[in-house]
Write a structure and sequence with these properties.
The protein has two helices and ten strands, in the order ββββαβββαβββ. It is mainly beta. A five-stranded mixed β-sheet has the order 1-10-9-5-6. The protein has a five-stranded antiparallel β-sheet with strand order 2-3-4-8-7.
């Protein structure tokens, strides 16, 4: 039997193997949206933007680090609602790119965009940890307050 997800409060570190990040906040997608395809309105769905900040990422170099973070956020995160319905990973980008700004050397701050059904309530971010270490859980949830 699989253990249930561990609830981790917004702002607390989420350990995933040798790495750690935290969920900073979550908001509905901006309206009007930025000129990025990830934010295009989808019929019957609302956009949710989850802001995360990486604490540790190991010894990866610049481009390798960015590629790892983007892939991890797109494949290991989903949103689950109060009825247990999941919305698979969305698109991820460095936070400043959302506003068409140069992120410079800031590799820590990211956004993940999800499109959940309009009727979804009680949203939480579900994080899959593919290689949990001692005291880490395979699944965790962070309530988004939405």
């Amino acid at each position: 039997a699989q253990e249930p997800p561990r609830e981790i409060a917004m702002g607390d570190d989420i350990g995933v193997g040798p790495y750690a990040f935290k969920v900073v906040s979550a908001r509905t997608a901006p309206n009007p949206p930025p000129p990025i395809s990830s934010f295009r309105r989808q019929p019957g769905k609302k956009g949710v933007v989850v802001y995360v900040s990486w604490k540790t990422i190991g010894e990866m170099d610049g481009l390798g680090r960015l590629a790892f973070i983007e892939d991890f956020l797109q494949t290991q995160l989903s949103i689950v609602d109060s009825e247990g319905k999941q919305t698979a990973g969305g698109s991820a980008m460095q936070e400043r790119l959302m506003f068409m700004d140069d992120p410079g050397s800031n590799w820590r701050d990211w956004v993940v965009v999800f499109h959940v059904p309009d009727e979804s309530r009680g949203l939480a971010l579900l994080v899959k940890n593919p290689e949990p270490r001692e005291a880490q859980t395979r699944l965790s949830t962070t309530p988004l307050g939405m």
